Backbone:
């Protein structure tokens, strides 16, 4: 007699020999959270002022994410998929769904205000993505709860400007059959959209800073997820870095970054240090603004032309 899904999950969760990321999540669901795989209740839901408060706490994220959610939904909506954005606790803050599909997804709890944390619903795309901090796909009977085995969920984490996990982006489907190749295609789109949201949020968090790519080697979308960017202030000090940049450059994984010269952070030897470096940069800017006219540049710097020429010679400028 074939085992039920709930019996199989319970058996694998308690097996000492079963070792995989999926079984580890099942085990957390059963042992750590005390969940029953046969439970049929919907996720808990918050509405009204409580939901509004959770959204307000994520106001900047919501602002930059809305256009990205729209674009992602344009790609997957016609195939009957549902797009969700959650906070770090797995609470659904925003949704994109076709009117004709909304009631069906709400019936599964895949709607605004529902709690899809792993602690509440066991192994699922949103909750397990947040628990493990990585992009993943949970299809049908990979879910912990039997009631969720009709779903396929493709998810990616979103990291905040301080390096902390702040959200998950989800595309879910409850269609009876969905090819693995199609799921992989959707998962790639989810990952790209999550990376775009993360980069936009980072830029919006440092509106006065110059945003610099941390490496020229295919790191616009780093393999760890998200853009490898740093924020540099007017004094050329690094004041922020995305999660991918922190990992790439050996910076603290979370929290504020101690301001350091961008060239030091990027490990670029520019050949000068201290005041000489700053003076050379100031002269270069003045010359550029004056279209190379030394007299105009000297006036802008408040020095004589002869002094400017002497400083240019000392600092290695080519004389024209």
Residues:
């Amino acid at each position: 007699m074939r085992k039920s899904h709930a019996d199989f999950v319970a058996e694998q969760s308690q097996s000492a020999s079963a070792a995989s990321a999926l079984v580890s999540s099942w085990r957390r669901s059963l042992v750590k959270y005390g969940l029953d795989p046969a439970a049929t209740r919907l996720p808990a839901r918050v509405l009204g002022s409580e939901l509004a408060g959770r959204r307000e706490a994520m106001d900047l994220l919501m602002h930059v994410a809305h256009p990205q959610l729209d674009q992602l939904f344009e790609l997957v909506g016609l195939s009957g998929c549902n797009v969700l954005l959650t906070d770090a606790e797995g609470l659904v803050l925003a949704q994109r769904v076709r009117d004709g599909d909304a009631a069906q997804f709400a019936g599964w709890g895949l709607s605004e205000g529902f709690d899809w944390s792993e602690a509440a619903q066991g192994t699922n795309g949103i909750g397990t993505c947040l628990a493990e901090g990585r992009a993943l796909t949970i299809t049908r009977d990979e879910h912990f709860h039997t009631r969720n085995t009709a779903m396929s969920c493709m998810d990616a984490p979103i990291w905040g400007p301080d390096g902390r996990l702040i959200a998950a982006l989800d595309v879910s489907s409850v269609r009876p059959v969905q090819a693995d190749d199609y799921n992989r295609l959707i998962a790639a789109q989810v990952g790209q959209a999550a990376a775009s949201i993360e980069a936009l949020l980072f830029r919006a968090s440092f509106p006065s800073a110059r945003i610099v790519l941390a490496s020229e080697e295919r790191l616009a979308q780093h393999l760890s997820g998200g853009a490898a960017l740093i924020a540099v202030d007017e004094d050329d000090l690094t004041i922020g870095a995305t999660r991918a940049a922190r990992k790439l450059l050996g910076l603290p994984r979370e929290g504020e970054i101690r301001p350091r010269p961008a060239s030091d952070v990027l490990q670029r030897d520019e050949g000068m240090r201290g005041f000489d470096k700053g003076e050379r940069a100031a002269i270069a800017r003045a010359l550029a603004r004056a279209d190379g006219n030394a007299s105009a540049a000297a006036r802008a710097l408040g020095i004589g032309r002869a002094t400017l020429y002497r400083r240019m010679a000392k600092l290695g400028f080519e004389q024209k």
